[in-house]
Amino acid sequence: MSLPTLFISHGSPFFALRPGRLGPALARLGQTLPRPRAVVVVSPHWMRPTLEVSTAASGETMHDFGGFPRVLYALDYPAPGAPAVAETVVTELARHGLSAQVNEARARDHGAWVPLMHLYPAADVPVIQVSQPSAPSPLALLELGQALAPLRETGVLLIGSGSLTHNLGDRGRDSQVAPYVVAFADWVWDRLQAGDLDALLDYRRQAPEAVRAHPTDEHFLPLFFALGAAGCDWFRVRRLDGGITDGALSMDSFLFADPAAERAQAA
């Protein structure tokens, strides 16, 4: 069973309670995808200069945010871990020349558990996290995804969790959607459909207002993890319309190597 890969825009922690458009789309996806034996998530809320893999048999829920209502801090996502699968992750990384340390104490950050609350609300699919390389490099995330791509053939779902746009300074300035958010999101979708990996890797120069969409790019880089993990079928892509929250956060997400997606033709 070969699974597709996912890039999910996890938005703000409020996404846990305000599903908007994307929450129901993820719920439907979780019901239609073949059930994975484990999920591996890369999130910008766990970045390390050297790779780490969470190996705990049970994962605690980390509330790694401040200034939000108390109800958010009471949420829990008690999905089990999968130590055996985590060891396989370490082995696959080593096979590709990527050294990783095990971390038995790492709790799950909100980049992992918030979107998973919608995708697998019963919290019954084991979850593993792999730290995101702290070097801001699309190629590093692409390589990380390529290294773990073989796990798809063993029933492991690989997810890059980030945000299609992520300028928190523009969030909620007014009730209108910032035009650059739409322009940037549409450019990414167009390049994905066209199979234009070179342009995507060079997005900071080629995409409209890329630096405004991502003053720092740690939330965009998980897209490249999902691309790399999808392998040569990455351009079989489906867009999950997530809308825009707070005027500046595009919640659009993407399913790669989707058997139902038609192969996109280059523009």
Automatic annotation (TrEMBL):
RNA-binding as UniProt keyword: no
The organism's place on the tree of life at top rank: Bacteria
Cofactor: Zn(2+)
A Pfam family that the UniProt record links to this protein: LigB
InterPro entries linked to this entry: Extradiol_dOase_DODA, Xdiol_dOase_suB
Residue intervals of the Extradiol ring-cleavage dioxygenase class III enzyme subunit B domain: 32-233
CDD domains given in the database record: 45_DOPA_Dioxygenase
Entry keywords, A to Z: Dioxygenase, Metal-binding, Oxidoreductase, Zinc
A GO molecular function held by the record: oxidoreductase activity, acting on single donors with incorporation of molecular oxygen, incorporation of two atoms of oxygen
Signal peptide: none
Keyword Zinc on entry: yes
Homology family: Belongs to the DODA-type extradiol aromatic ring-opening dioxygenase family.
Record protein name field: Dioxygenase
Organism from which the protein derives: Denitromonas iodatirespirans
